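Q: Protein A?
A:
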Amino acid sequence: MRILSRYVLFGALLCTLLVSCGTKQAVPTPTGTPDPCAPANIVAEVKKVNDLQRQFDDASQLASVTPFAQLPGVVPSMQDVRRQAQDQTVPPCLATLKSLQLQQMNAVINTFLAFLAGGSQNPNTQALTQGIAQSRNLHGLYNQELARLIGATFLPPTAAPAAATNTPGGPTSTPGPIPSNTAAGAASATSKGPGPATIRTHPNASGGTLAMLDAGKSISAVGKTADGLWIEVADPYGNTGWVTVSEITLANGDALPVVTPAP
């Protein structure tokens, strides 16, 4: 009995050392998975989508200068990129961007196929015209959503791209890389507020309006007029416009080159 008591005592002590003899609920271990939609991560997530968009745009631009007889060999490369885009998993905050991307890709591919269906002697020019307009519109919506996601200002192109001579691949605009709105140490223009600053086509009050820069928002500054009263700004895609210095706070602008505006 004395030996048995020792075993009982040892068992009780062991249970105590192991926290308890009862059932203990496991405490979930945090996974530490970062939120892809958080401001610190969303640019990297958007870049994954836009890398495929740029591949597609490159392929469609190549097709725009491809002879009619060789077009059937070019279309599959665009279809391959579209399949990659379809299979790409994106977080919920990028669902609209992906939807616009796929709509734009489908518009371009379908336009090519309809155009080719008419044959070299009688190409479907009506489908070409309609497809160009649709793909341009969708690409513009895609660019606007992309800019919204990364907190940048998107300026629509001031001039329409050159039309393709015989194919629908050329009219879509190509977004550039996805940098931060303004790089550290680079010249930038920040809207003073309280209302938005007007970005214009030319450095004068009668210049057409390209975009509105909300109060507190910044955009890259790339040049200035000789009198220093107007600053040339550029969005992440290389589109440029002009904003008066009275509406912005200019940072790191001492070395901005003097730019002669286009007539």
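Q: Protein B?
A:
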Amino acid sequence: MLATSEWVGEGHRKAWARLRAEGVRTSKPRVLRLLREANLLTPTRTGAPHGPRAHDGKITTERPDEMWGTDGTTTMTGEGQATIFVVVDHCPSECLGLHATARGNRFEALEPVRQAVTEVFGGVDEKIAAGVLLRHDHGSVYTSEDFQREIRFLGLESSSAFVRAPEGNGCAERFIRTLKEQLLWLRFFPAVAELNAALADFRGRYNHRWRLERHDYRAPAEVRAAFMALETAA
């Protein structure tokens, strides 16, 4: 199962969940023991102690489209450094927008936001996304007047993370970590256009086949579909 998986570096909980999905019933402690005996566990290290927390609350939401998180990261391509902007729903952890660009400015940061609005609401129009909070950090691209003006036009409400508390934007940060581990650190892209094509493929695979422990190892798209079915039935 590990040899044929499309993902790399998954721990014993994901391995147990995938075995369960394939009809193999066993316990998580047994899977952990077998992986440890076979030296298949990922090495870990103890983190440094932290000071008082500026944020100690819950950032996940109870249903989709209550809060989205946006953030950016960088990677090297054959054309130089590229910036990758993401938008992630805080409930199902679904990637709603993903965009790479050679220019990491405020205008490019809006592209995944527009992707998300189009994906969920069917288009881009004034106040079409009213009621959705957009969580972001205090970077200049997000605090700029151009960015803030555009999200207000779309109906999104700006929600800044606490200063020096990146966990406030943890849903987007966690998705970026997965993106790095499963794609960016494994492949080199000669051009930004090729990177964007790979990101589009990754977004589909992640949304439909990445399993989330907090959602009983269901994929993000499955979680959204379940919520939508409940609302339709109601």
